[in-house]
């Protein structure tokens, strides 16, 4: 079996597990990173999002083969080593932009990815960046406020 | 070490560790690179004191912190912070210092279901009384220690002190190994409302930081040493019989066992992905027989009219105004498919579940498995928001069936997206026929309301048959629907001043599995009544808010309606935009809520765009204002989605709404801005508010669409009913 090298939240790894395994299950079950969640496994909801080389990516749609040499960041890896929250995380707390919180991982990851490319997005750009992310509790109007706030930090 | 499969992942740099955590220990704080590793998040079971005892609700932890044990569940509705606020307030300790234990048959009171917006009304009030009683016990204890009287004692800055400030002791030192072992006195004095520090404030939710860090623990995140991953292959459709399955799947890599029991088919595997691959192989190779195909229909309104078991008394010729409204079957649609972990060992079954009712589920699991209730423990863990009876109880039963077939090993089962979409019990379809007369002064002089509805609760309450898989076992349990409209009549009586309204309901047994969906029948009834009120207001030539006020006698109704009209004073409409309203008092006994929606409709672009939704809500005493606003905003957005887009689609042998493409819900491009105003009534009891907004919000969207494009949609969803250009 070929061995695959990648980095997660700043630490490097190589592995030889079934290379067809969706990254979502690797991150959750082998690394116990619970930020990314299973929502649909079909690329329709965004609950499983992570950053691969700083781009928001659906981890249910990427398998191990797809990450050779890449840098992965999950929700837990967004804050500084000191524990200081990323501005997007901070803004979500300030706006209390969650209810059950199951979708929140994807919302934050989408927003972080957007703000990396575009530090002062318009509301239309925020909506477009978050279009894949579903929330059933109805927290989206708060999330939009939180992302606007984070873009000003 | 918990079994992270580190063997397979060789760390090639030493800069950071993954932060493995030992079984039984909680993770360290502030280690950004580690994942949450929990072993058993449940405390050992205890003898549960009676409900009138302080320690039924409140305990002192070893470190002196106070712990509240509630028999309710956190569903994302903010119950945890409300409990912390009321207990913290009575004890004069900051809410964030209080630990909360959710419903657990090994630890907490039997408080039935967390449903119907009663969590705050009942449970929090009992916690408030228990905390007040605990405060008195603490004062008495300190007073005895120091030779003072209890009224010379105060609690301040997390310490117990004498009023003169000379004596001071921590909770831990004062209470040491003791618990509060006395009863809550009948007339326990509660803290005066004018002295409140935290109740009524927008206290941030304590879980929020954990949520944004990915550290909040969901039932989906539980991991135990040696745990196996399971998947179940659901039948093709209701009632389908399993004829055969590909037995060679058992030889696939990592597969521990295939569990077959009648038409119930499950697979246990070491790795989750192995379980998934086996599931797909089973799906491909299994063959089924569909004996009783599901009835097909295209219009819920027609189906219900023809299939109701009551006699339709058509009165329409007696009235000048008539209209028929309908709502299709709709989904709870939780973002996280249901999940449970079950562990059967030495005759004891332990299930971790996000059920809304640990005790009712336990009695149904007892019926299912034949185990005595005392040999089953159900621990409530938060899950993805459920909005009523979704798949959470069913998946717990599935996990129990698997665990009992494979004793000694914890089994984690998460449903697939398709399982949740096809097998959750849906919100019922309903048909509402309204008739009324108006006087020349524009007053309603006669009102006739006829309602057709499928049932609204098949929650497990001791009967295994309400757990879906029980019907597919070799020894199946027979499901008998209760054959009544039940919660379908919720809010069918107009909360207006109308002489002798006539209301009649008819039960219809429909083709799909149904149960409680947030607000039950209230959503459809209010959609119909509030649409009809705007139709009548137009006939009467009156402003729709004024028309409602003219038909209200309850001061609190009038107050929310007036506030709403004040809020909207400066809103002006552009071409293609419309504004519509909705009002109700939920259950006619709970929170008052008035909603306005601003939408634009572009018929040639086939687009309805909700632009803004405003709500005014009066939920009595407000415990957490931001929590109330969050619930109300969420309720409006959810209802906008139901109203515009949602309908469960099905054919004779298949539910065809099986993912988010075939059952679309609102996405960011159509999310309205929201604004909520609270009328606080600190002198009145708090009223449940989690379900107050859905009905008025749905009606307001339909009314706004009418305003924007002149099409009156009476059969939901709107996007299906509109005639596009
Ligand atoms: S779980 Fe990956 S998009 Fe839904
Ligand atoms: S907060 Fe519950 S799904 Fe978004």
Describe this structure in words.
The complex is a heterodimer of chains A (153) and B (725). Chain A is α+β, with helices and mostly antiparallel strands and 153 residues long. Chain A has five helices and five strands. Chain A has two domains: 2-77, Roll (Ubiquitin-like (UB roll)); 87-152, [2Fe-2S]-binding domain (DNA polymerase, domain 1), CATH 1.10.150.120. In chain A, helix 2 packs across helix 5 (140-152). The longest helix of chain A is centred in the C-terminal third of the chain and has 14 residues, at 104-117. Chain A is globular. Chain B is an alpha+beta fold and 725 residues long. Chain B has three domains: 2-213, Aldehyde oxidase/xanthine dehydrogenase, molybdopterin binding domain (Aldehyde Oxidoreductase, domain 4, 2-Layer Sandwich); 219-292 and 333-423, 2-Layer Sandwich (Aldehyde Oxidoreductase, domain 4); 519-526 and 540-725, Aldehyde oxidase/xanthine dehydrogenase, molybdopterin binding domain (Aldehyde Oxidoreductase, domain 4, 2-Layer Sandwich). Chain B has a seven-stranded mixed beta sheet, sandwiched between helices. In chain B, strands 13-18-19-20 form a four-stranded mixed beta sheet. Chain B is globular. The model of chain B is unreliable at 1-7 and 12-40 (pLDDT under 50). At the A-B interface, strand 2, helix 1, helix 2, helix 3 and helix 4 of A face strand 1, helix 4, helix 5 and helix 13 of B. The complex binds FE2/S2 (inorganic) cluster (FES) (2 copies). One FE2/S2 (inorganic) cluster sits between chains A (98-103, 135-137, 139) and B (76, 335, 385).
Greatest interface and its participating residue counts:
A-B, 74 and 85 residues
Query: Low-confidence spans of chain A: pLDDT under 50, at least 5 residues?
Result: none
What percentage of amino acids of chain B are in beta strands?
Answer: 15-25%
Widest β-sheet, arrangement of strands of chain B:
10-11-8-17-14-15-16
Rounded radius of gyration of chain B (Å) = 27 Å
What structural class do the secondary elements of chain A suggest?
Answer: alpha+beta
